[in-house]
Structures are given as structure tokens and as C-alpha cells.
Amino acid sequence: MKISSQQIDKGILDELREIKKSLQDSERRVVLEKMTPQQTTNSPYFPDRAYANPLAVKDNPEETSWKEVPTYEKTREIEIDTSVQRAEFTSLNGKKLNII
């Protein structure tokens, strides 16, 4: 059985493609490893670390207060109790929506 030079070239080309794929994969892994965020630094929730805080409670109100966004009415302290205030409230909302 005789192997032609085209078969040899094809085999070499296939090997080079495999090497290229593995090289690209390893480069991608290195880049992803460098880019991963290191969020465990000084976190008080890891009990096995020196900087752990036993009094830290995850998702406590003080920690999550930044997520609460007050409404426009709450920031302006508009109460809708009386009819006069309701009319004022509807006019404010009309102005917000550009309804005249």
C-alpha cells in the first residue's frame, strides 16, 4: 500500500488544525481566567477567612437600601387625601405626560 503525498499533506494539515484549535482554546481560557472578577476579596460572608464578620447578615436592610428608589410623589411628599390634593396630583401627572 502506497501513501501519496496528497494524503500526507492532508494528514499534516489536519494535525496543524488540531494544534491551532487547542492553542486558541488555551488562549481563550487564559484570557477568561484573567478577566474573572475576584469578588471574594474581603467579603464578610466567608466564615473560613480571616476577614469574616460573624455579625454580617447577607441582604440586610442597610445593605440593600440602595435598591429602593422612592417614587416622584414620595420625594415631593404629595398625599392624595383630599379632593384639592387629588386635583393637584392629577394636574401634576398631566404635566408629566404633557397633557394640557
What attributes does this structure have?
100 residues; mainly alpha; 0% strand; elongated
Tell me what you see in this structure.
54% of the residues lie in helices and 0% in strands. The chain is mainly α and 100 residues long. Among the domains are: 1-36; 70-100, no CATH class. The chain is elongated and about 100 Å long. The mean pLDDT is 77.
Beta strands, count: 0
Q: Note the run of SSEs as H and E.
A: HHHH
What about the largest sheet? none
Which spans have pLDDT < 50 for at least 5 consecutive residues?
none
What general outline do the C-alpha atoms trace?
A: elongated
The mean pLDDT is 77
The helicity comes to 40-55%
Question: Per DSSP, what share of the residues sits in E-state strands of 2 or more residues?
Answer: under 5%
**Alpha carbon gap, first and last residue:** 92 Å
Which class best fits the helix and strand makeup?
Answer: mainly alpha
Rg of Cα set = 32 Å
Q: Helical segment tally?
A: 4
